Amino acid sequence: MKILTASLCKIGGRDYNQDFVTVSASGSNACLVVCDGLGSYTGSEDASRLCAEKIKDLFEQVSEYDPARAVKRIYCEAYIENAHHFVTSHKERNPKIAQSCTTVACAITDGTSTTFAHIGDTRVYFFRNHKLTYQSKDHSLSQVAVELGQIKLRDIRTHKDQNKLTRVLGSDYFVQADIESLQKPLNAGDSILLCTDGFWEYVYEEEAEQDLASSATPEEALHKMEKRLLARIPRFNDNYSAIVAMCKED
Fold first, then answer.
1. What is the pTM for the complete model shown?
2. What are the backbone dihedrals phi and psi of residue 235, each rounded to the nearest 5 degrees, phi first?
3. DSSP letters of 40-77?
């Protein structure tokens, strides 16, 4: 089994891009990271880039001497905590971006063990045989409204508090990521989608299922999803980014 990936990171209708994506993939081993810098804080594009690159670099370093260990839950937690300290250290040396922060979503796998992690409202989706079986929960006030039964999950997209986050990476104190480990190995036909709110706001889960099922490659699936997004976005829409990983027979 091998993992094929495709990604996009677009500026949308904004003046600059605070999203950042990075991928390290070889055979059945992969590290996928998507970050979204907080738009109201100067320098958040630095926070998102530094976070994503640090997680990937740490994954590759561990993979060099122990690939099986590199994808374990405890190591995923360590990658994210180290990325937080890496970002805050950079901020301390650059006072102009002292308020910058970022969300993060990542997936690490060797095909046998797979771990997902996220902080904020950048999402992780896992599809088994093209059917959604896991979706991360946003760290936002809108997600709290869902948990309280005040709104439906689908209504997060238009809720007034959708962009009010309860957890971010790079703030004055470290907050734990939500971690999820798959109980079974990946199989051909499985897919992973990581994406920022500027993407998932305009691409619905059932549509992602359809696009993955009808696509031979991750590039094709991502193109179909972006086409849906472009038909719906308003003027001055947010940056939007995503990674699609598909499991194929080797």
1. 0.97
2. -65, 145
3. TSTTHHHHHHHHHHHHHHHHHHHHHH-HHHHTSHHHHH
